[in-house]
Amino acid sequence: MSTPSPSAGRPRGAAVDLGLTPRAADPTEEEALEALEGEIGPTGRPRRHVPDPPLLDRHGPATVLAMCNQKGGVGKTTSTINLGAALAECGRRVLLVDFDPQGALSVGLGVYPHHLDTTIYNVIMERQVSVQEVVQETSTEGMYLLPSNIDLSAAEVQLVVEVGREQALARALRPVLADYDYILVDCQPSLGLLTVNALAAAHGVLIPLECEFFSLRGVALLIDTIEKVRERLNPDLEITGILATMFDPRTLHSREVMARVVEAFGDIVFDTVINRTVRFPETTVAGEPITRWAPRSAGAKAYRALAREVIAR
């Protein structure tokens, strides 16, 4: 189902009105938790019913989602790992693509990038290397990894002289689209050629957005880039949703930013909100998703709820 562009009715690249004006005193921790568990969700909207995901009798073709935000540290990699694991729990076959030269996604799944002989770089730059040769199993049943390392940084330079340079990732993924239900591409924190490749290959964009003032200011630029890719390279590209991350319901600032996000982007904002928690850094050290490391934690429950929303959309 096509989602209206949230930037309709405003000039291209125009900043979102953010007038952050304090409205109430900070709640106590108990009040904040009660609000999260009530009928009104942390987005300030009534919680919408999300049906349980249907069982599948076969896998594929894959829906490709680019996890994208040009600002670093907003939870892209954490969300890619944990959403992928939650989708796998729902019986979906999932491929995670590490498309960041820093290799954070690979590290977060217990893979040491500098030990790898072949990565996504070899798949997109060397025709004799197939994607099936490079894909690795993870500790989560039904979830697989296409790893990356610093070699990928060379691809951005080398692709400049290639014909169809924006379609390199789409060509690489084409042979395995029928093998998976979801392919999640963890993009680097920039709007360079690698990110454009991810957008050109994707059916949808999932935007993790930190509940912080400066994160919100950059979303207009990202949406402008998404619109350009839709017009010039990938007419099927849609914004699947905006995911609020690092939300602290006890602080006025987080709640004000959340209100502005919902006001600006409406229904494309997921009802699921990812709260700040020490559990996520722990999972990075453990090399496992939070659904395995702390399966009963609030973070695990949140990503399971997100997976249901993604499947429903």
From TrEMBL:
Residues 27-37 have a biased composition (Acidic residues). Residues 1-57 are annotated as: Disordered. It is an enzyme of class 3 (hydrolase). The keyword Hydrolase applies. It holds the Pfam family AAA_31. The keyword Hydrolase applies. Keywords: Hydrolase. Its EC number is 3.6.-.-. InterPro entries: AAA_dom, DNA_Partitioning_ATPase, P-loop_NTPase. Belongs to the ParA family. May play a role in septum formation. This is Sporulation initiation inhibitor protein Soj. It comes from Actinoalloteichus hoggarensis. The gene is soj3.
